[in-house]
User: Fold this.
Amino acid sequence: MFTTEFDYYLPGELIAQTPASSRDQSRLLVLNRNSGRFANRKFRDLIEYLRHGDVLVLNNSRVIPARLRGVNAHTGGQFEILLLEEVSQNDWWVMLRPGKRARVGTQIRIRGNRGDHTEIGAVVTGTNDEGHRRLTFECSQNILNLLEGLGEVPLPPYIDRRDAGEMERDRARYQTVFAESPGSVAAPTAGLHFTERLLDEIRARKVHICFVTLHVGLGTFAPIKADKLSAHKMHEERFEIPESTANVINDAKRDGRRVIAVGTTTIRVLESVAAQTAEHAPGPRVEFGSGRTRIFIYPPYEFKIADALLTNFHLPRSTLLMLVSAFAAPKETRGREIILSAYAQAIEERYRFFSYGDAMLIV
Assistant:
């Protein structure tokens, strides 16, 4: 398939700049992939689509304040630093702007998130083929433990922030209420709609809630540059699936109960650890443990674990749009038409798109 087949036009005013007034008051477009029918609901109505015994799987990765500011120690020139992946303590791959001024050996002084000077330094120690820099931080503590006073919320570039009050509110709203394990530089956005109260109500319906961890990288949201999907090289992300989560999911698959993935990051974990069991216990299952994945899911694809998917509305030509297209019609290519039709419906109904936007349930 070609990348251009996953393009669509979105009016700029439908790109959500702020979250809904209350997390669970965002809208929910429900797509029945068998009938092709749509329903316009509120996110709180999700509970009506859940059954006794269902398993709801969420990504509990925590977004870190990954955007830093610094100045060249010799010239005073300013840098914007976006942490991408930790190599080891105080050793990170980062995106540095302007990159041309960040040659190997460049020394940088880090500033606090209010523009104040700090005693923290950093030095560029390497580059890679993607243009990223390797940065070693010079401080006595782990830089991860200092980010609250140094970093800014790494909002995606399509969200415009100039108001300090809004930026402060983003620290809470660009984070799920169940976030635990720090490491993401972008939010697992499908989880942003949940409140503690709604999760409690879901549990009261005898729905099992469990968690996986996938630390979301910027590559998740990047448009594909290759003409053909088969030529795209997927970014790599770290994940972990606890034994308790694997047991709950495997019991559900054995009993014929539904597994509902919350977000494309969650479904990538489940498909990455999916395995076929031995002949005496046929059927798919997941293996617990940790690892790294660069799985790229696009039509046609046979999903092994998830029976339903809760997700947001995704950027044109993105790997996420391709994944939901595959889910809309497993093992077929017509899911692209189904999803683009659903997106056209959402645009007509004035749904809000992308990270702070509304949600979509595919059943």
Q: What stands out?
A: The chain has two domains: 3-63+173-362, 67-150.
